[in-house]
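Co-fold these.
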Amino acid sequence: MKAVLINQYGTENELTLEEIPVPEIGPNEVLIKVHATSVNPIDWKIRKGIITGLKWEFPIILGWDVSGVIEKVGSGVMGLKPGDEVYAFPQLSRNGTYAEYVAIQADAVAEKPHTLDHLSAASIPLAGLTAWQALFDHGKLLTGQKLLIIGAAGGVGTLAIQLAKNQGAHVTGTASEKNIDFLKALGADNIIDYTSENFWEKMSDIDLVLDCMGGDAQMQALLVLKPGGILVSIVGINSAVDFKSKDIEPVFFMTKSSSVQLMQLGRLIEAWKLKPVIAEVKSLNEIKNAHRLSEEGHTRGKIVISIPQ
Ligand SMILES: NC(=O)c1ccc[n+]([C@@H]2O[C@H](COP(=O)([O-])OP(=O)(O)OC[C@H]3O[C@@H](n4cnc5c(N)ncnc54)[C@H](OP(=O)(O)O)[C@@H]3O)[C@@H](O)[C@H]2O)c1
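Predicted complex below.
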């Protein structure tokens, strides 16, 4: 099969399209014929060696989103069969989804929403599960609460806006001017242009901050959070910030695979309450360019990679 590999850490020039064997599956895994995958910032962070602690051997196949069709199921797999159209965020491993086939643990796989084609479905799993887990598992978001999303126009933020509005929250986000009308049309109550305004001077008594940016954002978030509020960061916790002064326990988490939560996202999608936001569709041959774009940090929604059948 064709797959995009890296044989060492480095620039996007390390991404090489190669012919390798189709992976074997274990008893609790399924083999998926990949129709589409997508680019997430973690792909280029791993490629550059920024994310430490991975003890994987090279070569590494990047990419952790898939929409495709099940080709084979392991002997212990229940409820999935060849021919099923599915989507998944496989647990991080060195065998990612920039490939024609991927072997994935069955409990990460859910039926693809019927209303989406594979290209749209591949934009959902990693970013959608991140938004879900940030808002509900860690952020405990309730109806009527005030949410601030720092970095609302990206892959995670565009889905988080919609999930939070479905929950009945009041949603403010930060983004640049070109995204203001777009994000309001997605449901945001208010978007603050971070290039011309300081959000910490415009709001107060926030129940939950979802930080998709890191850095100084948490220092500023502390100014707008109400005492006892929640800060969830998907980037990391800034240890220089005195969260205790406002009785806040900041949370950082790494997104977990979950077929159950993918089914919940799928139900919202099929009910037209959650829609994918796709900036661009590229091919595996254009993967270097896709990484460059993602790394620039101004993608609206997701960059999806189409795998021809
Ligand atoms: N912990 C986890 O498991 C986990 C999971 C998923 C993602 N992440 C991390 O979370 C971060 C966000 O992920 P993502 O997929 O949403 O990224 P993304 O899609 O690359 O985010 C791009 C967006 O960031 C916005 N942006 C750039 N600079 C900004 C600023 N100063 N203030 C506000 N918005 C700004 C841009 O909007 P404008 O064009 O309007 O500037 C753009 O739309 C990444 O660092 C990613 O690695 C972590």
